[in-house]
Design brief:
35% of the residues lie in helices and 14% in strands. The chain is of the alpha+beta class. The strands form three sheets. Strands 1-3-2 form a three-stranded mixed sheet. Strands 4-5 form a two-stranded antiparallel ribbon. Helix 3 crosses helix 5 (107-126). The longest helix has 20 residues, at 107-126.
Length: 156
């Protein structure tokens, strides 16, 4: 039975503690694919990718063919999880939130933190990562996931 070895992607120095999927601090690595037996579908070598705990915990189909398809799947999971946060920017402007008369224990906190929550969610979803290479050689696989759309906004 052949052994399967995962290869770490090259990480730029300024990104050495950054999740490749969302830009948050990375605390773990994601082995792609989870099951080395799924490598028959891959367009590239088995990879180890720096990830935050949240991105690492998302489930993805076993028949994904590339790291870019994985990134698109994780981005979609982030969008689903943070739909309410992203909707803040769709429904309000920063100035409207500042000018609003939210008060009380619940709404007062929303008025103060809502725009910040929206900006964090938007940055995570829009984060593009860095160019993928292994041992200074660019990954020879085509990124066929040029972008996605959410509420009429195109993210690429």
């Amino acid at each position: 039975m052949p052994t399967h070895a995962y290869t770490s992607i090259d990480i730029p120095f300024n990104c050495r503690h950054t999740c490749w999927f969302c830009g948050e601090p990375s605390s773990t690595s994601l082995h792609f694919p989870h099951d080395a037996q799924s490598c028959i579908y891959l367009e590239h070598v088995l990879l180890t990718i720096p990830a935050c705990n949240e991105c690492q915990s998302f489930k993805y189909p076993s028949d994904l063919t590339s790291i870019w398809a994985l990134r698109a799947c994780i981005k979609q999971a982030l969008i689903s999880k943070y739909t309410k946060h992203l909707a803040i920017g769709e429904n309000w402007t920063e100035q409207e939130l500042i000018d609003s008369d939210f008060s009380g224990a619940i709404l007062g906190g929303f008025g103060k933190s809502a725009w910040h929550m929206y900006e964090i969610a938007k940055q995570r979803v829009a984060f593009q990562g860095w160019l993928v290479s292994v041992d200074d050689l660019p990954l020879n696989s085509i990124d066929d996931t040029a972008g996605f759309e959410f509420n009429g906004t195109h993210y690429s």
